[in-house]
Structures are given as structure tokens and as C-alpha cells.
Amino acid sequence: MRIPTTAKGRQTMAGITAAAARLMHDRGITATSLDDVLAASGAGKSQLYHYFGDKEGLTQAVFRLQLDRILANQQSLSDPSCDDLTRWRDEVLAALRASDFGMCPLGTFAGQVGDSSVLRATLSDLFEEWRLALAALVRRAAGAGHVVAGVDPDEAATCLLAALEGGTMLANLQHDEAPLRTMLDAELARLTR
Question: Alpha-carbon distance 17 to 119, whole Å?
């Protein structure tokens, strides 16, 4: 992937990535062709290949964009002064409602990477980045005395992320936030004082 040096180039690259993210999230990676992305973005084929190289490079950029969107909606993870796990839970539920009970912007791709070791590694790395941000929040909460003694922040983050992913899937199927809220609340009750 090439990073554009001009504002216009960055805008073009962002437009291609955003169009691909919409299509891949809605249709799936395999069902989204590069021609579909070009039509949706209004970009030229040479621009797409210049910035991304191929569909795999574009898909990697889509994964990164989706995690960036998630983290933008979960600002408690990047706020070094935040030690409130309930704030994070509320941000997660608000994002679910804003998406009209859609699937996780990143998790939706977990079953779609097929045999691509590059895409599998990229997705795994991005989930790990998310998990580490969540573990940092758990550490801050523990430091403030809000977490039960002896809780391992890394294990807690894994459990919270698993609850989020499973709860989001069930919330999507039921078109109701209750499954996600229940799963997050159960994990938070186990972790917090």
C-alpha cells in the first residue's frame, strides 16, 4: 500500500477505502469486485492499483479503516484519563444502536479471509490491537480500584471482546441490544466491584 503525498491523493485513497468498506461489509469480500469499488468510489482503476496494489491490499486497508471506526466509537479506550468500564460498555451499546443492530465492522470479516494468510494475519493483528486497548482500560480501572483484586487485564480484555463479538452477533439476529447488554453486563459484574 502506498501512502499518498498530496491531500487530493489522500482523499482519493480514503474514498476508495470507504466505498470498499461499505460494499465488503454489506456483500462480503468475495462478492465485492474491484469494478464495484471503482463504480462506488468514482476512482480510476490506475488509482486503485497505484495505492493498494491489488484486492488483498485494498481489503487490508478496509480492515484498518473498520478498526479505526470502532476505536472512534469507543473513545474510552484511547482516553488515558478514563478508568470507567461502564463508559466503554455504554459506547459499545450506542454504536450498536447507531448501526441499526448491524454486525461488528471488523468481526463480520472473520469467516471471509479464506486461505489468505496475509488477510488472516492482518485481521488477527487488528483484533489484538483492539484487545490491547481494552486491556489498557482494564488496567486503568484496576489502578483506580474499580476491578476485583487478582483480575488479569489481558484475560479480562479477551473475555470482554469475546462477549462483545458474540453479543453483537445475537443482537444482530434478534434486532435487539439485549443480548449484547446482557453479555457485557455479566462480564463487568464478574470483573468490577
Answer: 16
